């Protein structure tokens, strides 16, 4: 019974395990799961079930980044498209926008970051900052207090195990300590046998390696003391200069492991190369340079020495060996090299360069000439070392005997001889080298030099200079006979070289003899014009003048050639040469009005008014019905105060020439003299004869407007618009009349009609914008400007106005758009220059102003307003020299257009004012 009542200790084995029970967990097992625990395989919950469960729990569903991916393109929908210019432009625009936005927020962002950093450092200061006050307090601690601070002991209260290990003392220490204070007082028997200076080693001698090791260490320490340069007298203490030490470290080349590995591999390759092919000189040179690069100069010299032994006939190996050694050793090496390669010019030249004394150099070079008498380089170096012209002449005489084919030596000898002997030398040279063009050119230069050498009569000088032309012509013929055919370009280069060396007549002779070579007859004029322009661009004015002179002899009736020659003389020549060219030009082209006018203008600008009248009288004879000549004569008389003569000339011109421009100038002349009634009568007659000439209506309307008769002026403009609806200026004048009469609505309507009749005219859009701005409608002005830019997207005038209508922060971005659409327009360039001016970027502003005034090919088409803006800029930021330079350029350009320039220039009050004065007036009107 007692056994039955006793509990069963193993009953738990038949009980079910708890839910969280893991077998073996007490022994460190982590548990495992089998298929019987989780049941058979089954499909998990679907995506819809998971989404519903997440929605019940209030969780947001995770977005798969690949769900919008193109199934056929796993790298993106647009990965295969072409990156075009529009895409690049869009990226640049977005990048610029990001930069601008970042720049606008930068100040606030940096202030916020600084504030957060200060707050963070206040809350969590560094250890250094926490003890900063204590460190500052150390400055008042005295030396006694500092020395009384106790040493820090072991505060860990842990017993440290003492190191009780023992070590065996080295024998060298024991021997050294034993013999440290001993002195030898007698000589060994072996020392006595050898006289006390040598101790011959015998069989069975025992070497004391410990003493050798100590001696080596002592020698090393002495060397280190010597290197430091500051060793004390005892040799036990050294004081090294830290600055000098650090400076010396800069020259130490530290090589990385990779470099060392590369050097080792290269060394193996070169070793294999020189062993497999010992006669290959570049391999020895490369191996030696590798050792030099690795800093092993001894190995490099040893390597190149082997190369010299293996390749004794190669000059490069000997030169490399000389380079790797010092000066004295290099001399010995090159002396050995001469024994093997005595015909090498490089070896002898290197040997002469090693000598520092001139006599030694001469000795080496003359020895070289004994071995290599036909070397031009050796002869030239030998002659250059001679300080006496006589000795140099003797050497060159011998040189041309030995080397008669060297042109350089012949020319050098000719330069050292007198003119008579030089001719003989050049004749010999010509016979010895009949294929050299340099000898013929030198002969021509010699004749030119002799012609200008002394004071001679002009006839004799002209004859001698004519010999230059004959000599060059004969030279060209002889060269052709010997089949030496130089191209035109080569001859032109020789001519330019002669001009650069002040041999102008020889240059002209070369061009005269060769400029017609290799050109088709129909291409001659264009080719010669191009050659002249190219030479002028290079600064070779003499060559350009000679080309044009030859072309004028072939084409004497070409007006464009004479104009080109006159422009060249005006820009680079003298007044006498310009007058001579123009006189010849009107003689050959009497019907060319522009040449007559140029000649008369030059006479007038020179202050010779009678000569200018005489030129115009001769022009009347050749061109009796020329409108330009009549008007030039009228202007000449009017500018010189001869008003009655000018009026009489205009009356005769209306009878003889009878052109619309002469009638217009007659009316303008009467208006300038204050004879408004006569001007109106002249205009009435002219309008009947030339009803389609718009300027007549403009002048008539301006005269009525000057008299305050707005109705008559309005009628004149209306008549003109009906007769000439395509003239933009008439519409603008009519609009300004209405605006002056306080009728902005009518002015706006007129401009609308003008734009319908003349679409695509940016001037009309600019005027419309001006009307809106003057009437106070800034918003409406921007709208009109935007419409204008849509119709005229490349108009620089409208883009310039668009830049200045923007607020200051966005003007630069607007200017970038303007440069992209109309980058070469002078108005856009001027606006960019003004933006740089506003930012105080003086040099950039000056550069852009210069670009603006040179944007037009014809200088007279330059806008006068741009010159005025540039001068105003220089008045504020430039020097007097810059201001004067701008004024001179503006006067030379003779500008005629501009919104501010034309009203000032055509004002009756400014009649007979110079371009300089008008420029000053326009500067005053700018704002």
Main sheet properties: none
Strand content: under 5%
Number of helices: 50
What is the terminal separation in angstroms? 129 Å
Number of strands: 0
Mean pLDDT: 80
The geometry reads as: flat
Helix content: 55-70%
> Which spans have pLDDT < 50 for at least 5 consecutive residues?
196-205, 229-240
What topology emerges from the helices and strands here?
Blueprint: H1 2-5, H2 35-38, H3 47-57, H4 85-123, H5 127-130, H6 132-137, H7 143-147, H8 171-178, H9 189-193, H10 209-228, H11 242-250, H12 257-276, H13 281-293, H14 297-310, H15 315-324, H16 327-340, H17 345-354, H18 358-371, H19 376-384, H20 389-402, H21 407-416, H22 419-432, H23 437-451, H24 458-481, H25 488-500, H26 504-514, H27 524-537, H28 541-554, H29 559-572, H30 575-588, H31 593-605, H32 609-622, H33 627-639, H34 643-656, H35 660-672, H36 676-689, H37 694-706, H38 710-723, H39 728-740, H40 744-757, H41 762-774, H42 778-791, H43 796-805, H44 811-822, H45 826-838, H46 842-853, H47 864-877, H48 880-893, H49 901-905, H50 915-925
Helix pairs in contact: 12-13, 13-14, 13-15, 14-15, 15-16, 16-17, 17-18, 18-19, 19-20, 20-21, 21-22, 22-23, 23-24, 24-26, 25-26, 26-28, 27-28, 28-29, 29-30, 30-31, 31-32, 31-33, 32-33, 33-34, 34-35, 35-36, 35-37, 36-37, 37-38, 37-39, 38-39, 39-40, 39-41, 40-41, 41-42, 42-43, 43-44, 43-45, 44-45, 45-46, ...
